[in-house]
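Q: How would the structure tokens look for this protein?
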Amino acid sequence: MERSQAWEIVCEFVKSDSLRKHMLAVECAMRAYAEHYGEDPDSWGLVGLLHDFDWEIHPSLEQHPMDGAPILRQRGLAEEDIRTILSHGPLAAHDRITLRDKALFAVDELTGLITAAALVRPTKHVRDVEVASLRKKWRDKAFARGVNRQDIEQGAALLGVDLWELHVPLVLKAMQACAAELGLNGGA
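A: Here is the predicted structure in token form.
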């Protein structure tokens, strides 16, 4: 599947601008991890872009992302890509086998934390977010309460990377590179 086809699916099923931007952030982070590991950024980015396409029609953790799989099959997405998307769901923890599976799980919640940190900055620009400020906000359980920090830690552990030395900096840098697309460029 081409990225343009994936974006058409996103636009068809996702009406929330913030959810679309989340999916774009996960795409950016997945592309960065693919480059880090010498893998195909297009393939990794595609699963990041599509991973939550069914959230608005199936917003329960019991249904998402399993109920979206038949739609993706019908649209021609490769089974390998569908399997990776399925692996990010909470009911599929045992299915996170490949590096790509683990990366998708690892970046999903972290992009939310970084987005929240950017939006509370006076500039609302992700370029002004630093790893040190994220670490400080990490300890504040009231900040970005909906972000599952345990999933972020577990994701870094699954990848075998240090949370603060590699994982957070890599995803932050990826999102900074995509700031305009994510709407995290201070309105510039």
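DSSP finds ten helices and no strands in the chain.

The radius of gyration is 15 Å.

Upvote if useful.
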